[in-house]
Automatic annotation (TrEMBL):
Origin: domain of life: Eukaryota
Coiled coil: none
The species this protein was found in: Brassicogethes aeneus (Rape pollen beetle)
GO MF annotation, one: ferric iron binding
Entry-linked InterPro entries: Ferritin, Ferritin-like, Ferritin-like_SF, Ferritin_DPS_dom
Residues where Fe cation binds: 103, 138, 141, 182, 216
Keywords from the UniProt entry: Iron, Metal-binding
One of the GO BP terms on file: intracellular iron ion homeostasis
Family, as annotated: Belongs to the ferritin family.
Phylogenetic lineage: Eukaryota, Metazoa, Ecdysozoa, Arthropoda, Hexapoda
Listed name of the protein: Ferritin/DPS domain-containing protein
Presence of the UniProt keyword Methyltransferase in the record: no
Gene Ontology terms: cellular component: cytoplasm
Xref: Gene3D superfamilies: 1.20.1260.10
Domain Ferritin/DPS, residue spans: 95-229
Length: 274
């Protein structure tokens, strides 16, 4: 029986799904293996492993989950099979993956806005650079959560990013859209905090409050102020002056880091605003 169990465990490890590997291997191994029904099932798996795709394995997991009073595998206690993982609840892991998705979505939306202002018939290098920088910032946030997930012994599950639904009518509209996105992301961060609090995960709570919340609030404040200033953009001269201010205040100062050939064209930097 012990040999069968360890074989079964090795078999499950071939599946990347944590549901298959962690829940089934630990729970079925300890609690279901001794029953004649599950033993028969295991023998079937060893006979024809090719018939047991991930989909079939998930059914097995669900079966075991029901036996353990869990409606799905993810609602069970934290996985125990992965080494280097301690006190990291499955629900926290899931919501961190959700946050990675939201940060990447925000990054792509900012990139779409930046591309709008970078078009030759729009040509507003201040707004172009500002939103390009915002894109880099959101991308970096996604990577912070990505690396954090791995550090805690979790599994990163990347989801497809949505096509950005942004087509700004002008600078004022773009900054209003940005404010809505920042508020949305802040609310998502609070959800991560609440799940971490529920499972007494002190470090995830600290990650949110220390590394994200202040910056998020500063962004919301900054965008609110810029929306006020952007009211002058209803005339061509106002639009020029506003963009020049954005360029000087937010794009030019980070020149060494961001204004390289890959972020803004040299000619634009040299000719636009000095
Ligand atoms: Fe962010």
């Amino acid at each position: 029986m012990q040999n069968l169990a360890s074989n079964y465990f090795s078999f499950l490890q071939k599946f990347s799904s944590p549901k298959s590997c962690e829940l089934t291997s630990t729970k079925l191994y300890h609690e279901n293996l001794a029953t004649p029904k599950s033993q028969k099932l295991l023998e079937k798996i060893f006979d024809k492993p090719q018939e047991y795709s991930n989909q079939n394995m998930d059914k097995l997991v669900l079966l075991s989950g029901q036996k353990l009073n869990c409606s799905t595998a993810n609602q069970c206690e934290e996985p125990k099979a992965r080494k280097g993982r301690h006190g990291y609840h499955q629900e926290v892991e899931n919501i961190v993956n959700e946050q990675i998705y939201h940060e990447f979505n925000a990054a792509l939306s900012y990139l779409a806005i930046a591309s709008h202002f970078g078009q030759t018939d729009i040509a507003l290098p201040g707004c172009h650079g500002y939103f390009f920088n915002m894109h880099l910032e959101e991308h970096e946030h996604a990577l912070v959560f990505f690396n954090y997930q791995l550090m805690r012994g979790g599994q990163v599950k990347l989801k497809g990013i949505d096509t950005p639904q942004v087509s700004p009518k002008g600078p004022a509209d773009a900054f209003n859209t940005a404010l809505e996105m920042e508020i949305f992301v802040k609310e998502k961060l609070i959800e991560v905090f609440n799940v971490a609090e529920k499972h007494k995960d002190l470090q995830v709570q600290d990650l949110i409050t220390t590394d994200f919340m202040e910056e998020q609030n500063k962004s919301i404040c900054e965008l609110g102020r810029l929306i006020e200033r952007s009211k002058i953009t209803d005339t061509p001269l106002g639009e020029y002056l506003f963009d020049k201010m954005i360029f000087s205040a937010f794009v030019k100062k980070d020149g060494s880091k961001l204004m390289n050939k890959r972020s803004l064209q040299d000619t634009e930097i040299n000719l636009a605003y000095k």
